Amino acid sequence: MAHPAALRKLVDEYEGLQAVHAECGGTETRGQITELACALCMSTGTSDVDAALIAAHHQLPGAQVHDDSLLAP
Question: What is the 3-state secondary structure (H, E, C) of the chain?
Answer without folding.
Answer: CCCHHHHHHHHHHHHHHHHHHHHHCCHHHHHHHHHHHHHHHHHHCCCCHHHHHHHHHHHCCCCCCCCCHHHCC
